[in-house]
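Protocol step 4 of 5: obtain the predicted structure for the target chain.
Materials: sequence only (see below). No template structures provided, no constraints applied. The aim of this step is simply to have a reference model before the mutagenesis design in step 5. Sequence pasted as it appears in the construct record:
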Amino acid sequence: MTGSRVVALGHYQPAKVLTNEDLADMVETSDEWILSRVGIRTRHIAGPDEPVDELAYQAAAKALANAGLIPDDIDLVLVATSTAIDRSPNMAARVAAKLGMASAPAVMDLNVVCSGFTHALATADHAIRAGSATRALVIGADTMAGITDWTDRTTCVLTGDGAGAAVVEGCEEPAVGPVLWGSVPEMGHAVRIEGTPPVFAQEGQAVYRWTTSRLPALARQTCEKAGITPEELAGVVLHQANLRIIEPLAAKIGAVNAVVARDVVDSGNTSAASIPMALSKLVERREIPSGAPVLLFGFGGNLSYAGQVIRCP
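Step 4 output (structure tokens):
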């Protein structure tokens, strides 16, 4: 195979919804304050019986069903997450076990925080191109609520839980474009999940300045690597960090004809889950035509980033 393609998607969110009004009862904030600063109205919160691997499993099962495949059709499972509590078995192994895979798949977790899914998608694409895999499950899943300081109104208004998954398989005509990835190591402290127990914290203004000033050029470079112009994009799915970051970024990229994912309004910042979950919803609602080019671009923790243009399944 000379390339790979995304053939199907799936997503899962916990049933519990936390509104801005609910948050106003917990910390000094208001619906107006939250909307004006981050554009989020609601977020989903996992229950005690919904760890990261359960969310990932639910999204993966839906993606497999949408692809018309069975678990044993998969020979590589990648889970992007930064909120797994246990180190072994890793989340990918647990997802494979929950799915009942008997096909001896390779199982790997990737921790690149908010850009984890696009890193994992590139890794699956590379493995398929190299002949190391034929069909992969690529999952982004995080339970950010479990590492949130609910007394800090600058971060607790952001976070939510969820998972999104993609089935990726080999093909003759590449439909997953070359990845553009990198990081700014000296600014890694700007987004942190540290301590025992771990707690999410960030330097919001530093992240905002970096993303709005640097990322548009990186996103345009991603389009160049795929051989298209931003005007040709039918969709733009950025990491769902903050609506006040997403909207100016999309405008600066120049994707004037694209549907821009705004799932952050209803789901909050779900870290590695945000891109596949937002894309899955757009595809489910048929807002982007099959085969149309879509820019995926993740950014965040470590001040790492990764993006590629894919053809919509």
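Step 4 remarks: The radius of gyration is 18 Å. The chain has a mean pLDDT of 96.
Proceed to step 5.
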